[in-house]
Specification:
Blueprint: H1 3-14, H2 38-44, H3 47-59, H4 65-81, E1 86-91, E2 99-104, E3 106-108, E4 114-116, H5 120-124, E5 125-126, H6 138-141, E6 146-150, E7 157-159, E8 162-171, H7 180-198, E9 208-222, H8 223-227, H9 230-235, H10 260-275, E10 280-285, E11 291-296, E12 299-300, H11 301-321, E13 324-327, E14 341-349, H12 362-381, H13 383-390, E15 411-412, H14 415-426, E16 465-467, E17 472-474, H15 483-510, H16 515-529, H17 542-550, H18 559-562, H19 569-578, H20 583-637, H21 642-673, H22 678-689, H23 691-706, H24 717-720
Parallel strand pairs: 1-8, 15-16
Antiparallel strand pairs: 1-2, 3-4, 5-6, 6-8, 7-8, 9-11, 9-12, 9-13, 9-14, 10-11, 14-17, 16-17
This protein binds adenosine-5'-diphosphate (ADP) and magnesium ion (MG).
Length: 724
């Protein structure tokens, strides 16, 4: 073992579980104590100010300057009492992650002194010098400035000693430069469309919320081993490494006992998250060694997404205390599962009715089926776009790899719901549909609708978009994705679909068809229209890929080509109709995604090339030298050295091939860099550069198998992947 590798391993083994104690076993004692939530608002704001703020949060009532000043004063007092000395506007730029610019509360008082200032103006709007965030040309075309604007629906919180104020990030002319702005727009679009449809069933519904419960997968590895792997440090994944003899084939990690060091980390993470109002609920081992998952109780989608972004920040901080590194790359290790982020999504009314949960009466179930069918139809109509929303240079390593959903979007409904839909679909249009006094469906063959009791165990883990009894679970997101990307498309698509549905129902009603029958008939039509998106079989199989293509589903596997869906006519229409994006914003997003793609592949190519040429080839050559020496001496003694000669030849061939391949890859990169058009450049990176990664790696991994372990410098999978 090389000295460096030995030292790093020694350090890793010396790391012990850290003692972590939450102050009490009752999370209610500290839940939300670092958040300026309702409780804190009531304490630090006057009754009048409190009510004005609540009205803004609940019904978008504009805030006056005076009220904003009063809120700022109360918020500042709370923050100072809780140890904060700075504040920042916290936003989610399109680079991924979160951005914050800290300012201290101190202002000069004009008399040579300082006082703590924090006005309503500072709370509600700022102009961060954000010219280095990607804008896809928006700020160049219009105005150089970007603004951050307070989102009062997501409460402020304190991280360390900084008061963080969740904000939107927009250009001077109002174009979104972040994830939050379009997410809020999509939430508002689906609220409007769903409320309209709900009123067929319940006139009193005023508002429909979209809910999100994410499940976050991640890897933890020791930070000393991490530092000794330049590929992990720079790309977030290992670009080489021979598989350990034992990885996940025994299935002994999933739901196994959590190692003590990791458990200490988890406890610490949970405590910090709960204090920040993130309602973490479950933690467990995942399938791969060193892979784990946490999930909270679901929340309104905007807040849930802020909480996921905040979780990621907190995770990295807490990990440092425990000498860990968190890996959020979708495929950090070859041969073991990658990490996703499942998004559980549902719609619910202000009366607390989950629109994707079967009800007790036939009428409630017609409402349930209505929403269910429209969601499926929306996913069908925009399946390519939904996939494009979660595609990236990193997630493309995972999707379709036979362990995560395929790169084809389909929906799984379970046998019960499927058979109900099939019955409705094949029923005759002239059937008299009404509800009798007992609220039962008067229609032959549909007796099960009034009592839909769903079997929750009917699961299909291979489905990217599965109905799980009272919600849909979208599983194609990558661990590092911002949940908003998928939620924006889903909310907008469902909003568009529900609006179309309503138009069709209303047309029927105008023709004199009774409301229930009009709804029923439209539902039946839609079930037939979106049949191709329903798939209950094995999504990992090759047959499905062929079948999906026959059905006309989007089967594109190239990430840059997937990005074309962002600018399809139907996408532009979808986002313009729902007010989520205008064309300029969409073009900007497509450009940023393509740029990010190119940059990530470019970095990976450089890292792989460097490591291959200045780590792997020299080490292999050194070992080859030792063997040559041996063969030479054996030859002197007249001994047979055929085996060693074979080994030398093997090493020589592989090192020579690596050098050639790296040279070719560099040439292809240069050629790609000369392409002006970003779309074509991204395609070139995908088709001509990234294709070298596997080929080069293959030779490196074979060398790792034969080269003397004593001189191998990079920590091996078997060392990185098993935390003691
Ligand atoms: P599983 O592993 O079976 O998928 P988990 O318990 O890991 O389940 O995660 C389920 C996630 O779904 C949690 O985040 C939970 O809060 C969320 N969830 C439950 N009900 C709903 C709902 N109605 N809408 C949205 N999310 C929900
Ligand atoms: Mg799940």
């Amino acid at each position: 073992m090389s000295l460096l590798r030995f030292k790093m391993l020694e350090t890793a083994l010396s790391h012990k579980a850290m003692e972590v104690k939450a102050p009490s076993n009752n999370p209610s004692d500290y839940f939300g104590e670092r958040v300026f939530g309702r409780k804190q608002m009531r304490k630090y704001l006057s009754k009048q100010t409190y009510e004005a703020l609540v009205a803004t949060i609940e019904s978008n009532t504009p805030l006056t300057q005076g009220v904003a000043d009063a809120i700022a004063a109360g918020m500042r007092q709370w923050a100072l009492e809780n140890g904060a000395d700075h504040y920042c506007h916290w936003f989610q730029p399109l680079t991924g992650g979160t951005a914050e610019k800290h300012d201290s509360f101190g202002e000069t008082d004009g008399n040579g002194g300082m006082l703590e200032e924090f006005s309503g103006k500072v709370l509600t709007q700022q102009e961060p010098d954000a010219s280095s965030f990607p804008s896809g040309g928006i700020r160049n075309t219009f105005e150089a400035r970007g603004y951050s604007a307070w989102d009062p629906t997501s409460p402020a919180f304190i991280v360390d000693t900084t008061l963080c104020i969740p904000t939107l990030f927009i250009s001077y002319t109002g174009e979104a430069l972040d994830y939050k702005t379009p997410l809020l727009r999509s939430i508002s679009a689906v609220n409007k469309a769903a409320t309209d449809v709900c009123r067929y069933f319940d006139k009193s519904v005023e508002r429909v919320y979209s809910y999100l419960g994410w499940e976050q997968e991640f890897f933890l590895i020791d930070d000393s081993l991490y530092s000794a792997r330049p590929d992990l440090v720079q790309t977030g994944r290992t670009m080489m490494g021979h598989e350990a003899a034992k990885n996940q084939q025994l299935d002994d990690h999933y739901f196994g006992a959590i190692p003590s060091r990791v458990l200490a980390f988890m406890k610490d993470l949970e405590y910090e998250c709960l204090r920040l109002g993130i309602p973490l609920k479950t933690r467990h081992n995942e399938v791969a060694p060193n892979q784990f998952e946490v999930a909270p109780i679901y929340e309104e989608a905007n807040l849930a997404n802020d909480h996921n972004q905040l979780l990621i920040t907190v995770m990295h901080q807490v990990a440092t205390r425990h000498n860990f590194r968190v890996l959020l790359h979708e495929k950090p290790f070859k041969g073991v599962n990658g990490s996703g982020k499942h998004n559980n999504w549902s719609l619910g009314t202000d009366a607390g009715v989950n629109l994707l949960s079967p009800g007790k009466t036939a009428f409630e179930n017609l409402q349930f089926i209505t929403f269910l069918v429209n969601v499926i139809a929306a996913v069908y109509r925009h399946n390519g776009l939904l996939k494009a929303s979660v595609m990236s240079a990193t997630n493309e390593q995972r999707l379709g790899a036979g362990e995560a959903p395929p790169a084809i979007i389909s929906t799984f409904l379970g046998t019960q719901v499927s058979s109900v839909l099939d019955k409705i679909a094949s029923s005759h249009g002239d059937t008299d549909i009404r509800f009798d006094a007992k609220n039962a469906f008067r229609m032959s063959g549909l007796s099960q609708i009034p009592s839909l009791l769903l079997d929750n165990t009917d699961r299909n883990r291979t489905s990217p978009f599965a109905f799980t009894g009272n919600r849909f679970e979208f599983r194609a997101l990558g661990a590092s994705d911002n949940c908003a990307e998928a939620m924006i498309v889903l909310n907008a698509a469902v909003a568009e679909q529900l609006a179309d549905f309503k138009r069709r129902v209303d047309e029927r009603i105008e023709r004199g068809v009774k409301k229930e029958k009009a709804i029923y008939e439209t539902v039946r039509e839609i079930i037939n229209e979106c049949r191709p998106i329903r798939f209950d079989g094995n999504g990992y199989s090759d047959e499905w890929r062929e079948e999906a293509a026959r059905r006309g589903l989007d089967c594109e596997t190239s990430t840059p080509l997937n990005f074309d869906r962002l600018l399809d006519e139907r996408t532009i229409r979808l986002f313009e109709r729902t007010g989520v994006f205008n064309k300029v914003e969409l073009e900007a997003r497509a450009e940023i995604k393509r740029e990010m793609y190119v940059k990530k592949i470019q970095i990976e190519a450089r890292v792989l090339g460097d490591l291959a040429l200045n780590h792997i080839v020299p080490i292999a050559s050194k070992y080859e030298g030792v063997l040559l020496d041996k063969v030479w001496k054996m030859h002197q003694l007249g001994l047979d050295a055929a085996t060693d000669r074979g080994l030398i030849q093997n090493i020589q061939d592989r090192t020579a091939t690596i050098i050639t391949l790296v040279g070719e890859m560099i040439e292809c990169r240069k050629r790609a860099n000369r392409i002006e058009d970003i779309r074509l450049r991204a395609i070139a990176y995908h088709d001509t550069v990234a294709v070298y990664f596997g080929k080069i790696r293959d030779h490196i991994d074979r060398l790792e198998e034969v080269v003397d372990d004593q001189i191998w410098t990079l920590p091996k999978y078997r060392e990185i992947l098993f935390i003691k």
